[in-house]
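new request in #modeling-help
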Amino acid sequence: MVAAPQRTDGSAGTRRRRPSHSWSAGRLLGGLGSRLLDAMNLSEPTREKLKLARKKVSEVWRIFKANRLGMTGTLMLLFFTVMAVFAAQFVVAFSWISSAAGHPWAEAYDPFESTGDGVLQDPSWEHWMGTDHLQRDVLCRTVFGTRVSLLIGLVATAVSMGMGTLVGLFSGYWGGWKDELLMRITDVFLVLPWLVLMIVLATLLPGGPSVLKVIFVIGVTGWSSTARIVRAQVLSLKERTFIERARAIGSDDRHIIRRHIFPNVFPLVFANSILTVAISILSESTLSFIALGPPPTEVVTWGNILYDAYSRNAIFNGQYVWIVVPGLCIVFVVLSFTFIGYALDEIFNPKLRKR
Amino acid sequence: MGRRLLNALVTLFLVLILNFFLFRVMPGNPIRMLIPQDPSIGQDYIDEQIAKFGLDQPLYVQFFTYLKNTFMLEFGDSFHYKEPVMNIITDQLTWTLILVGTSSILMIVIGMAVGIIAAWKHGGMFDSGSLAFSLFFYAMPTFWLSMMLVVVFALELNLFPEGGQLPIGDKLTPFTFDTFTDLLYHLALPAASLTIGSIAAFSIIMRGSLIDVMTEEYITTARAKGLSEGMVLKDHAVPNAMLPMVTLIAMDLAFVVGGAFQTEIVFNYKGIGWATVQATYQKDYPFLQAAFLIIAIAVIIANLVADLMLIYLDPRVKMG
């Protein structure tokens, strides 16, 4: 991974630090956390561990806050997350604006229902982004599209991260021929053009198009680089003295992997997974664009909207808004994850932090 | 070196197994994958195909027949074109090769140039500007960037055609000067959309690598000898900083091929990506299978070549 050109020597961060506000997100969460801990009535060691974890998280947050790129990404992502959760409220808010401008909508539109205002309408106060071939409001669809687009990106990433971590952990820990075999399989998935494999899988897998199938296809094609990274980390961890110590006091493999190796690999996997979300979202939109995504009649994603726009000749009919806005949504979500990923990479990668 | 060759061979073999699994084992009935579900097809043809691919044999015998057929580039008949897949695929491969080759060269040259300038003036305006610019395009789905280019440069400004290759029967022969200019005219937008999105990958790595190299002692030595900054950069820094680029070019190929697929669809550019996506719509399994295998093999070979080149360029790799 590559460091973004950021001043990370800390001086810039401290100089710019403003006097602390009466409340900050960090303090709010921290207060909530300690109250939660008190309420949960946990055993002493678990409580200690949770406290330690909380301390670590707030430490990372402190460094992260000083990273301009990371904070920009976080704010952008926050916006899209709010839009995904409150999609219906967003549409209502837009209808208020239209009412205020003197063009009240007949109703708050639904992403799947025809508005009855004619097909392929140009943008107007009633339909800010026009209507599509089924008389649906494109603005409404774009807002609702945030949901599944983000969801597929996140879940597919979880799938590929899980697979990659497992393969990397065992491959690095076992060594020998098992390692060799797993790494050759990893190579296959690393080298194969992801889109080609996804197309073949999506075409051949039984059953019609569905969200689950898309998640599976993206997850299965995207795990290889994680496996490589995890394996490399495990190989270097294996030689450390604390592993030897654990073995000397009689810990078995399962215990060592779970308690000593995995916790040390996890931050790396996490930083890597943020960038994978970006790629997964791009993959979903591409699959949807070539009609291999989730069914457009039941699910709305930005990729689906773009597919509809393209296949109904929106380019040649001059309905540019229909194409530009959903595309920009993809670009900014992907950018937000990329920014956060780079920032985390700087934090978790000590070699980059020094520079 | 022998080790790398062996690894590539193993990878190749695993791809063959994966392909066999995907197209023959997974669907349950391999006959469906090689013979179109069309009542008008004569029984003679079905029997002939079954014999050719050993579809009535046990699975392991089928596998060896499959290996033999693959080596002889025998992938069966396309459901859609009704002739051997290999006959049609070579033409499309040429078109894709032209597109991918042109844009690869462009993205390497531009990416490296941007990276070198960014590293040279690092911390400056060009550095952060080029990063923001290239990341923005990197975050774009290639198909969307292609559509935007069509809108701006073909429909609004009317500078380039909105798609297709050559109007002259989509053929390159005879290769006159007019064919050549027409080729460039039609290639400009597809190649640009493929190039722009990938510049970031190259410029960022080149920048990082060059900044790393600039801290080496031999750079200080070169400066101490009284060389100008430009000469230090040209003769000492850049050649060494270029080594990671070789690996990157090969690694990036997988992404470029994916991008080429999307570009070809939007521009209606009849290369292998366009044809593969058509094949998924037409359920043309023999074509899909052949395209998958050929692309995979091409990418594996490209990676191997890059690996071997790196050994030649950087003797340290051999020991590592």
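bot summary: Chain B touches chain A through 55 residues (CB under 8 Å).
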